[in-house]
Amino acid sequence: EQVKEINSAAYMFEHLKSGxxxxxxxxxxxxKVFSISFxxxxxxxxxxxxxxxHSVLCGSRKFPLKEPFVELxxxxxxxxxxxxTFPDKTMYPIASMNDKDFRNLMxxxxxxxxxxxxxxxxxxxxxxxxxxSLDENDRLIYKGVVYNEMKGVYSSPExxxxxxxxxALFPDTTYGFESGGHPDNIPELTxxxxxxxxxTYYHPSNSYLYLYG
Length: 213
What we know:
By secondary structure, this protein is an alpha+beta fold. It has seven helices and ten strands. The chain has helices at about 50-55, 70-75, 100-115, 125-130, 145-155, 155-170, 190-200; strands at about 1-5, 10-15, 20-25, 30-40, 80, 85, 90-95, 130-135, 140-145, 205-210. Strands 1, 2, 3, 4, 5, 6, 7 and 10 form an eight-stranded mixed β-sheet that branches. Strands 8-9 form a two-stranded antiparallel sheet. β1 (about 1-5) and β2 form a beta hairpin. The radius of gyration is 19 Å and the shape is globular.
């Protein structure tokens, strides 16, 4: 269909074998956009969706680097490069005005989400999620990228109130949980549950792809 408001031709595609869906907005905008998203509905507040969002960008089958995302930020011509966890979905959007760079970014992101190193490198959950550590007084504490991030989030009274409201309003649904991870619950996440979440949700049949430009 022609979408006059953005001067684009909209195409909807569906991959017959897997059921993957693609929305393509064709126009003459030089800033090309790609995104792959997955429905990721948590059943607890361990932050598995958020930790997975971080972890899949820490090396994959074709790009076995420690942090391909960091290298892309350094050398890519991207105009946008990120990943986001929502209460019920996870998105991986990129944009670039350079065609070769755009295709390269797309390949890195697709390999990351479908073939991440999380199954081979058990340290990724510990690094991005949580692990034990000793403080300066040799007391056992929790650390981890997402754990520390969410401790910061929950230092805000507004965040505590918002999550309490969601739990009260939607107690029997996925929206009653904290998809980003609650500091009290993040250390409950196991490697088995981590891998199972990826195997369940990161599949073409559960993906929504978007192309623009």
